[in-house]
What we know:
Elements: H1 2-48, H2 54-58, H3 71-102, H4 107-119, H5 124-138, H6 145-169, H7 173-181, H8 186-213, H9 218-222, H10 243-251, H11 256-290
Helix pairs in contact: 1-11, 3-6, 3-8, 3-10, 5-6, 6-8, 7-8, 8-11, 10-11
Amino acid sequence: xxxxxxxxxxxxxxxxxxxxxxxxxxxxxxxxxxxxxxxxxxxxxxxxxxxxxxxxxxxxxxxxxxxxxxxxxxxxxxxxxxxxxxxxxxxxxxxxxxxxxxxxxxxxxxxxxxxxxxxxxxxxxxxxxxxxxxxxxxxxxxxxxxxxxxxxxxxxxxxxxxxxxxxxxxxxxxxxxxxxxxxxxxxxxxxxxxxxxxxxxxxxxxxxxxxxxxxxxxxxxxxxxxxxxxxxxxxxxxxxxxxxxxxxxxxxxxxxxxxxxxxxxxxxxxxxxxxxxxxxxxxxxxxxxxxxx
Length: 293
C-alpha cells in the first residue's frame, strides 16, 4: 500500500515538474518572439523614422529618394484590401455556413473539406499563377485592382472557411434546439442566433486572414502589378501598386536613401497590420459581450 502511494506521489510530482518546464519554455518562446519583433521595429525606426512625414504619404514614387513617397502604394493597398475583404467575407462565410449546416455528410463533402485544408497550405505563388491564367488571360481582366482583390481572396479563403466553420461548430447544440423549439426555421436560426453568436470567431478569422494578405507580394507581381506608378486608380479596372511591391522596388536599388524609404514603408505596413489585428481583438471582445445564452 505504501509502495503504491509513493509511486502515485512520484508520478504526480513528475507531471507537475513537466508542466512547470512546459510553462517556462512557452514563456521563453513568447519572450523570444517579442524580442525579435521589437528589434525589427527598432531597426526600421532607426533606418526610416526620419522619412515619415506628410510629404512621404502625399508624394508619388520618384527616381529621387528625397522626393519619393507612398501615395499610390497606400491608396492601392487600401483598395485591394477592401475588395479582398468584401469577396472573402461573402464567399468564405457563405461556404462555411453551407458546409457546416446544409451540405450532406458524404464522400464528396469530405473530399471538398480535405481540399480546403490542403489549399490553406499552398504557396502563395501558385495562386498568382492561377490568377494569371484565369483572371488575366481567360477572363481578360488584366492587371487591375479587381484581379488583385480576387487573387488575394483566393489566397485567404481556405483560412476564413476553416475559421468560420470552427466558430459555428463551437456553439452549443442547445442553441439550435431552443430556436427550433420556438418555431424558428433553420435560416432564421442561422441569421438571428448562430451567426451573431459565432461572429467573434468569424471576424477574427477574417481579419487575421486579411493581415496575411496585406503583406503578400509574389501573387501580385505574378499578375503584373506595377512597381512604379504616378497616378491613383480611379476604377476597379485600373492598374495599381501596393506597399509590399513599393518596398521591394526600393530595396532592389543600391542607394542607401531608397533603403531608408523602404524602412519607412515597412513601418507603415507594420502599422496597418497591427491596426487590422487590433480591430480583430475589439470585434471579438464586443461580440463576446453581446452574447447572452
